[in-house]
Structure formats: structure tokens, C-alpha cells
Amino acid sequence: MNASDIEDTENTAKAEKVETGKEASDAAKDTAEAVGSEAAEQETAAEPEAAVEQEATGEPDEGAEATPGVPADGEKKDEKPKGPDWKDLYARTLADFENFRKRTERDREDLAKFAAKEILKDLLATADNLALALEKAKDKDEPFVKGVQLVYDGFLKVLADHGATPIDSVGEPFDTSFHEALTQQPSDTVPEGHVMTEFKRGWLLNGKLLRAAQVVVSSGKPE
User: Fold this and answer.
1) Which sign, positive or negative, has the C-alpha torsion 64, 70, 76, 78?
2) Who's near 98: CB < 8 A, 6+ residues apart?
3) CB 209 within 8 A of CB 163
4) Which residues contact 160 (CB under 8 A, 6 or more apart)?
5) What is the per-residue pLDDT across 51-77, written as a single tens digit (0 to 9) for each?
6) pLDDT in tens, 71-105
């Protein structure tokens, strides 16, 4: 065999190898296309099943992407902030103003009632002295004593006209709201915890305490 025949043989072998490689490449390509087509068919077939399962269970598909602007199931839409309730605000303001008006009127009345509190408290000393003078008088029928009695009665009337009234304490149960206990003493006639005697008379001003009565409280029967 000469050199020309050898070269022809080599060329023929190369051509066969190229042809064989081309056939193998075409075969691989056909196989890949077949596999891809089969996968696509399986995916297409699985989509209706997934949709039916999602509709039956009511659960959203985890892989599904939410559409912009559309709220997902279970999420509330953003509500616009509500404006003020003018009717409610008006009712509240009107109620507050009415309460303020009543409170102001009550304070004004209290101021008028108790404006003379300090002056009346100072005048009580004069009433105490007149009462003591009448108590110590030996002859109640003397003209001088009768004159003192008239002054005392007139003085009590002036106090009453301004809302000041005396407190009757003797024989009454001891009350810390109106009485100031100086001491305790046993008594056969006065029950325990009741006022035996009164050193200084107590007074009220328009129903409120002006001066507490100074008293002696009974501790009950002696042992």
C-alpha cells in the first residue's frame, strides 16, 4: 500500500468519526427535547390538580406570588382614618360647661354663706361671756340681770340671722365631728360615751361646724 492509499484511509476514518459524533449529538438533542416535553406535560397536568386542592383546602399556594394592589386572604385592607365625631365632642363640651357652671354657682353661694365666718367666730366670745354672766347671777329678777338677758337674747338673734346656731351637747352621744373632749368622768346618771357637762358651747354656721363644743364625757358608772 502506497502513501496515497494510506491518506485516503485516514480521511475516510475521520469522516466516519465526524458522522458518528454528529449522529450522537443529534440523538442526545432528541433525548433532551423528549425529556423536556414530558416534564412540561407533567407540569401542565399538575396545575389543575393543585388548583383543585387549593380550592378544597382554602389555603393559598406558597409558591404563588401576590398580585400588587390586591390584599392576600386573611389580610385587612388599610382603612382610612376617621375624622373626629363632632356630635360627641359637642355633647362632651356642653356637659363640661354645665358642670363648670354648677360648680361656679355653688362656690359663689358658699362664699356668700361663709364670708362672715371669721367675724362670727370672734363674736362667739361675747356670747360666751353674756351666758356666763347670766349663769352666775344670783337673782334672776333683778333689773340688771333682766337687761343682760335681753342683750343676750338679741345677740343670739343676730347670730341666727347670719346662719349661726348653737349646738345642744349635754346628754348627747359624744361625736368627734362636733365635740372636743376635755376629760372623762364617771357618772351614775349619764351613760358611758355621752356628754356630761359643757365648758364651752359649740356653734354651726349654715349647717357646717363653726366651733366645736368643749365637753366632759361620761365614762360610765363608777366601779
Assistant:
1) positive
2) none
3) no
4) none
5) 445 554 545 455 445 555 555 555 555
6) 555 555 556 677 788 888 889 999 999 999 999 99
C-alpha of 138 from chain center: 67
Dihedral (CA of 118, 120, 123, 128) sign: negative
Q: Helices 117-136 & 143-161, crossing angle to 10 degrees?
A: 160
> Which of 13-17, 184-188, 203-207 shows the lowest mean pLDDT across its residues?
13-17
Task: Tell me the fold of 114-218.
Answer: Nucleotide Exchange Factor Grpe; Chain A, domain 2 (2.30.22)
DSSP 66-95: PPTTSPPTTPPPPPPPPPP-HHHHHHHHHH
pLDDT at 82 (0 to 100): 75
CB 120 within 8 A of CB 155: no
